[in-house]
Amino acid sequence: MGYEFDVEGVIEKIKKFHAEVVGVQFPEGLKIHATRIARQIEDETGATVIISADPCYGACDAADTDMKDVVDLLVHFGHTALPIKYDIPVIFVETRSDMDVQGALSSAMKLLEGYKRIGLVTTAQHLYLLQDMKNFLEENGKEVVMHGGRGTQNGQILGCNFSSIKDLEADAFLYVGSGNFHTLGIKLFTDKPVVIADPYINEARDIDEFADRIMRIRFARIAKAMDAGSFGIIVSSKKGQSRMELAKVLKNMIHKEKKEAYILIMDDVSPELLTPFMDIDAFVMTACPRIAIDDANMYKKPLLTPQELEIVLGKRDWEDYMMDEIEH
Ligand code: SF4
């Protein structure tokens, strides 16, 4: 599998910007291309390039690194821009996965039998194939519905933003991409059948078994947190993940139940960084919503989403379980 970058287009923009110092930032899977691209930019623009070696998970932490004080311009590869105000000029560079999605799409057709209107979504690296995917579904007798959302393009989904599937009149949803996380959100927000066409393993699957397993885990975490007397509310210092106002609301909510609450601010969240807080019984994640779900097994103490905290405190019914989202 490979990725295509429009480095020439980036170089043109850097020249127009007359940037002398350029930062480049890549998600983990693309960092192996960093030195090659940095060399090319330096050779063709004369600018000094600084490579961000910090972890980068999304457009939510673009321009959040120490680089913002030392570069004139940042080039962020692999994610699409979010509607937030970045501290320095940022060029977002579309990165196209050359993964063939056709085999997985063909497999998905069997699982979509009996459903006419299909809500189609994918992630940034496959977006350029969206029209081809739509054509394929239509050639196979389906009607395709999709729209964009705040911070997402037509048919694009993020782990913290499900606006592109909300209010879609679909009989079932097809997600083209890897992993199960996005589909859990689609399932919970729509209560419709959801199929994954996963090009990385070239197969399709429905997500019911996965969704049931995750919900059992969430229920166990919520049940364990019912006994908690003290909560740590985690706030991210990353601009696109920071929800301090929400954290304050949650802190008040916890205090009203005569329990202790502390706001913890951190950049990257990890189980090791929470280890010293031994007198805290449960944590609430207001940073990236994926962490509480995807990394649940890494944390010994319950790590809840804000909506799960509401269930723990009796402010929300379990039947109204909702995925967490960030309104950028
Ligand atoms: S908050 Fe999480 S899901 Fe949203 S863009 Fe950032 S890393 Fe991705």
From TrEMBL:
GO biological process assignments: protein histidyl modification to diphthamide
InterPro entries: DPH1/DPH2, DPH1/DPH2_1, DPH1/DPH2_2, DPH1/DPH2_3, DPH1/DPH2_euk_archaea, Dph2_arc
Family in the record: Belongs to the DPH1/DPH2 family.
Pathway per the UniProt entry: Protein modification; peptidyl-diphthamide biosynthesis
PANTHER family named in the record: 2-(3-AMINO-3-CARBOXYPROPYL)HISTIDINE SYNTHASE SUBUNIT 1, DIPHTHAMIDE BIOSYNTHESIS PROTEIN
Cofactor: [4Fe-4S] cluster
Lineage: Archaea, Methanobacteriati, Methanobacteriota, Methanomada group, Methanobacteria
The protein's Enzyme Commission number: 2.5.1.108
Gene field: dph2
Keywords tagged on the record: 4Fe-4S, Iron, Iron-sulfur, Metal-binding, S-adenosyl-L-methionine, Transferase
Reaction catalysed by this enzyme: L-histidyl-[translation elongation factor 2] + S-adenosyl-L-methionine = 2-[(3S)-amino-3-carboxypropyl]-L-histidyl-[translation elongation factor 2] + S-methyl-5'-thioadenosine + H(+)
Function in brief: Catalyzes the first step of diphthamide biosynthesis, i.e. the transfer of the 3-amino-3-carboxypropyl group from S-adenosyl-L-methionine (SAM) to the C2 position of the imidazole ring of the target histidine residue in translation elongation factor 2 (EF-2).
The protein, known as: 2-(3-amino-3-carboxypropyl)histidine synthase
Enzyme class: transferase
Native source organism of the sequence: Methanobacterium congolense
Gene Ontology molecular-function annotations: 2-(3-amino-3-carboxypropyl)histidine synthase activity; 4 iron, 4 sulfur cluster binding; metal ion binding
